[in-house]
Amino acid sequence: MKFLHTSDWHLGRAFHRVNLLGAQAAFVDHLVETVRAHEVDAVLVAGDVYDRAVPPLPAVELYDRALHRLAELRVPTVMISGNHDSARRLGVGAGLIGRAGIHLRTDPAGCADPVVLADVHGDVALYGLPYLEPALVKDQFSTQRVSHEAVLGAAMDRIRADLATRPPGTRSVVLAHAFVTGGQASDSERDISVGGVEAVPASVFDGVDYAALGHLHGCQTINERVRYSGSPLAYSFSEADHRKTMWLIELGARGEIVTAERIDTPVPRALARLRGRLDDLLSDPAHAVHEDAWVEATLTDPVRPDDPMARLATRFPYTLTLAFDPEGRREETGASYAQRLRGRTDQQIAEDFVAHVRGGGLPDEAERAVLQGAFDEVRADDSVRENHR
């Protein structure tokens, strides 16, 4: 049986204020075409369908179109809620939608109620395990500890118990949304740590043939049977080196992984993280390849250049973020604020502040004169007020 494993669509999310709805629609087109071209038997969507609990209307409309198109293919789809989704909202109408072959699994109570498909080798039980917030479900799963490992382990115990009641040889797949030990995170995932312990061991999925995971945005293999598909689009510059894909998994007659192929997803625009002095970034021919990319620039000039964003845009028109990390930045001494100020004049304190906020380089003579003039005016105003008391 052949599965297409995807997750973390984050419909409605922007990339540094760039609207990605068109790119997300292109991904849905690609998903539908991949299902058709590869004759996929089932689609697995492992959570974070939306980017937030109450998504914008255009995102809901895109989700609605995606469901209709998947239903028209008559290829079963199993979809779980992630930590960004509102499980209650995503699950509205699940019973009716299920009749069209779109199986929404958003209620933890139904984690051991699988979607059962069949091929020439027998049954495959697909268990949808939505994101479990430990504090909210610990009583439901009768766990003593408030942790992801405890509640996910209890849910998997229920799944294994149900699987044991099924005909011998029944193969099994679990969809889950969690941070599994060994996975590599990026900057765009929302923290799901509880009590400082967020990761769960891969062994929690022992006993099933394949675990289709969501939450981490990089496509990765924890082990042969436990994999993340990653997000279909990049949602932070920390994903600049990611290859965005879906997993095409073929499960054999005995539950073995026959093939695991990465299917590339459309890239709306490349990402580039550039670092250096402004003049070097603008002149270095090695950066020509990044001129049409979304750019994150970190300038290392000792003194902040004039109009850096406008100047960067002349070569890199899609620059989205700008940061400063000056060469030779002075390290903090560890002294208290009061100790650092002791014995220094107002003028010296102001000059140090200017150097700090612009990342290095004390004010020049003209700037010092402006500061001095400001202090002189303040002192003059104070003197006038004092004389009128």
TrEMBL record:
Function description: SbcCD cleaves DNA hairpin structures. These structures can inhibit DNA replication and are intermediates in certain DNA recombination reactions. The complex acts as a 3'->5' double strand exonuclease that can open hairpins. It also has a 5' single-strand endonuclease activity.
Provenance organism: Streptomyces yangpuensis
Record's protein name: Nuclease SbcCD subunit D
Listed Pfam families: Metallophos, SbcD_C
Gene: sbcD
Entry annotated with the keyword Hydrolase: yes
Domain of life of the organism encoding this protein: Bacteria
GO MF terms held by the record: exonuclease activity
Quaternary structure annotation from Swiss-Prot or TrEMBL: Heterodimer of SbcC and SbcD.
Location of the Calcineurin-like phosphoesterase domain: 1-218
Protein keywords: DNA recombination, DNA replication, Endonuclease, Exonuclease, Hydrolase, Nuclease
Nuclease SbcCD subunit D C-terminal domain location: 268-356
InterPro entries reported in the protein's UniProt record: Calcineurin-like_PHP, DNA_Repair-Maintenance_Comp, Metallo-depent_PP-like, Mre11_N, SbcD, SbcD_C
Similarity field: Belongs to the SbcD family.
